Amino acid sequence: MKIAFIGGGNMASALIGGLIKQGTAAAYIYAIDPIAETRERLEKAFRIVTADAPTGKLADYDAIVLAVKPQTLKEAAEAIRPFIAERQLIISIAAGVRSGDVARWLGGHTRIVRAMPNTPALVGLGVTGLLAAPTVNQDGRELAEQVLEAVGEVVWCNSETEIDSITALSGSGPAYVFYFMEALAKAAQNLGFPADEARRLAVGTFTGAAQLAAQSDEPLSLLRERVTSKGGTTAAAIASFMESGIAEAIVKGTSAARDRAFEMGEEFGRS
């Protein structure tokens, strides 16, 4: 498996590191980025070959990962357009941008998988939504899985709408968790703990609870109820959360994120 990356930012670095850790030879990975400092960082960290612009060398790779921001995806796709082969799989990790628009920018190339990884991929614990264009065969799907499973789990989607929903859930979800951690750390400080200890308490609590949930097949509601003794301290907190409508706010916020993912597809796909 030979993989080329367009863009060398954090997510590209995570994928490259994950692939090498899983056994892909550094000689089979190639990265293109216009920023010299980024190329130097990748070369030093992973001992891969890099370049500042696409060339015919791209045709040597089985898959090309478009690891750029949504607002620069069109430019990146058009830049590689003269150098790609029909057999190659294109994986786009730009949020919101639909596969049909990527295909148009690539001059009609349709062997495309849209991917939505999240930031825990940086530590190998990501969850990535994948959506294959109709022309992608089983070999292409397996190749996409192999690339993205280098940084965690993958979930296949059946439509652009579904991957927009994945974007709102697991793509944006880590920020929701960090937001809750911030609030819990602030609560700890209000109770008299110093900032560093408050942070450690908040992060440790979330990490432990997440591991407990991951290792259990029981409903999340049951795990919560087991900590919530009638008339106890946890029950008092949960009652306050419910009175404040926190669960409803999470649902509403996630819907807003899904709607924004759709809007981004409309916005960036117009050109």
Automatic annotation (TrEMBL):
Record's subcellular location: Cytoplasm
Keyword NADP listed: yes
Molecular function GO labels: pyrroline-5-carboxylate reductase activity
Domain (Pyrroline-5-carboxylate reductase catalytic N-terminal) ranges: 2-96
Keyword S-adenosyl-L-methionine tagged: no
Catalytic activity, as annotated: L-proline + NADP(+) = (S)-1-pyrroline-5-carboxylate + NADPH + 2 H(+); L-proline + NAD(+) = (S)-1-pyrroline-5-carboxylate + NADH + 2 H(+)
Domain of life: Bacteria
Pfam families the record matches: F420_oxidored (PF03807), P5CR_dimer (PF14748)
Residue positions binding NADP(+): 6-11, 67-70
Top-tier EC class: oxidoreductase
GO cellular component terms, semicolon-separated: cytoplasm
Domain Pyrroline-5-carboxylate reductase dimerisation: 160-264
Enzyme nomenclature, EC number: 1.5.1.2
Keywords: Amino-acid biosynthesis, Cytoplasm, NADP, Oxidoreductase, Proline biosynthesis
Any one GO BP annotation for this protein: L-proline biosynthetic process
Pathway: Amino-acid biosynthesis; L-proline biosynthesis; L-proline from L-glutamate 5-semialdehyde: step 1/1
Function comment: Catalyzes the reduction of 1-pyrroline-5-carboxylate (PCA) to L-proline.
NCBIfam families: proC
HAMAP family: P5C_reductase
Family from the record: Belongs to the pyrroline-5-carboxylate reductase family.
Protein name in UniProt: Pyrroline-5-carboxylate reductase
Source organism of the structure: Pararobbsia silviterrae
